[in-house]
Every structure is written in C-alpha cells, then in structure tokens.
Amino acid sequence: MFVERVQKVISNLGYASRREAERLIQEGKVFVNDQKANLGDKVSNHDIIKIDGVILDKTKNNDKVYYLLNKPRNVVSTVSDEHNRKTVVSLIDSSKRIYPVGRLDYDTTGAILLTNDGELTNLLLHPSKEIEKVYLAKIKGIITGSDIYKLKNGVVIDSFKTSKCRVKLKSYNKKTNTSLVELTIHEGHNHQVKKMFASLGYEVLKLTRLRFAFLDIKNLKSGEYRELTIKEVKKLYSMVG
C-alpha cells in the first residue's frame, strides 16, 4: 500500500501537473473519500479521489506520451484558459490528458514539452536539476560588451541575483537599432529573460526558446510538434536521475 500526498498521486497518474493539481485542490475541486482535500493530505491506494465530481481511476492504464511543440505566438502554456485563448494542449492531437512542462509567455515562441508523465515533469522543473534552456532574444538597442559580461555573471531581478549563464551576441543592426542575443540559462523564474534584459535597460522585442535540455525545434515549423523517441525519453530521465 502506497501513502503519498494527494497532489503527487494526481500528477503521477497523468491527470495534471503537480502545480495544476495543487491549484485544483486550492480551488476546492478535489475530494478524498468525499471530504474536501487540502494541500499535503496523504492518500493510499484504497482512498477514493474525486476531481470535479469524477472519480480518478488509479487502476486505468496510463501509457505515457511525450511531445515536443514549437509554440506559436499568442498561445497560452496551460491546459485551459478562462479567456478562451488558444492553448498549447489544443495544438496536440492526443487522446491522453497532457499538460505542458513549465511555461512560455503568451508572446514567446519555441520549444515546449507536453506529457502526462508527472514524475518526469516534476524532475525536469526542479531547480536542483539545472536543465538548460536556450533562448534567442531580439532586443531594442545595440548591446554592449560590458552588459554581456553582466548578463553572464548574473543580474538582479525581483530582489535576487540570477545564476551565471552563457551569452552570445549573434548579430546587430545599426539601422534598426536592434541586437540578436542568445542566452543559455538553467533557471525558470517568471519572465526571467525579459527581466534580465530590462534590468540593463533593454526591451525584448521578440523571444524564442530554441532548445529545452537537448531537444531543439530545428525541424519543426511554428505550431508543429512531434513525439519524442524512447531514446530521447530515456536520455531525459538520465539527466535528472
């Protein structure tokens, strides 16, 4: 008999990510044995979990699926949206209940994973695993060498200093007064890349995530996706094991 926190059970069964499960609990939509669940409540395999009045089937075969999507602009990185905006989940043709691994801003494009594997999701998002994310930012202004140095060594945003990262100036255009800068970070704070540039006085005009871990979008057009291979899934697990 297993005993685990209810949000972890919901996540491991592929119903939602851990963060989404916690939100459902906080909104009072999760019940255990007909009692409203609280964050941190522990359940066993004998307990009955209901979400929105529907019993969660813990015996149901839950084959894991993994997708890499090249997220278009103006799409939200959530399962659903109260404003009826297009979601990343709606772009994937899957019969499974999948959810995104982390988030990209509404106007940010690029690589994002979607899966129903709660265990892998939690591992990939844990700060201690330091999973690399590579971004290409088009910024207003010609970035200076000293500012590149500052980005590399960490800047202060939201009262904390970002970790060291890799920064490459890809190109600049004096006529349009813009620069293309590639950043490789392993953190995932809210709007982090935009705030890093903003701390130095640069506005991000366009932002794309080129790579998540070792997975890139070179062969995927905007809005296209593909399933990960077994080898790729095993490699992701090996990175966070």
Overview of this structure, please?
The chain is α+β, with helices and mostly antiparallel strands. It folds into three domains: 3-55, RNA-binding S4 domain (Structural Genomics Hypothetical 15.5 Kd Protein In mrcA-pckA Intergenic Region, Chain A), CATH 3.10.290; 66-126 and 220-240, Alpha-Beta Plaits; 132-212, Alpha-Beta Plaits. It is built from six helices and 17 strands. It has helices at residues 6-12, 18-26, 118-125, 145-153, 192-198, 230-240, and strands at residues 3-5, 30-32, 35-36, 42-44, 49-51, 54-55, 66-71, 99-100, 109-115, 133-140, 156-157, 160-161, 166-173, 178-185, 203-212, 215-216, 225-227. The strands form four sheets. Strands 7, 8, 9, 10, 13, 14, 15, 16 and 17 form a nine-stranded mixed beta sheet that branches. A hairpin with a 2-residue loop joins strand 15 and strand 16. The longest helix is centred in the last third of the chain and has 11 residues, at 230-240. The chain starts with a strand and ends with a helix. The relative contact order is 0.16. The model has no long low-confidence stretch (mean pLDDT 92).
What's the helix count?
6
The rough form would be described as: elongated
Distance from first to last alpha carbon: 24 Å
Largest sheet: 9 strands, mixed
- CATH architectural category of the largest domain: 2-Layer Sandwich
Low-confidence sequence ranges: none
Report the helical percentage: 10-25%
> What portion of residues belong to β-strands?
25-35%
Rg, please? Answer: 20 Å
Strand tally is: 17
Briefly note the structural class of the backbone.
alpha+beta
Quickly count the domains.
Answer: 3
Order of helices and strands: EHHEEEEEEEEHEHEEEEHEEEH
- Provide the CATH superfamily of the largest domain: Pseudouridine synthase I, catalytic domain, N-terminal subdomain
CATH domain fold name of the largest domain: Alpha-Beta Plaits
What is the CATH class of the largest domain? Alpha Beta
- Give the rounded overall mean pLDDT: 92
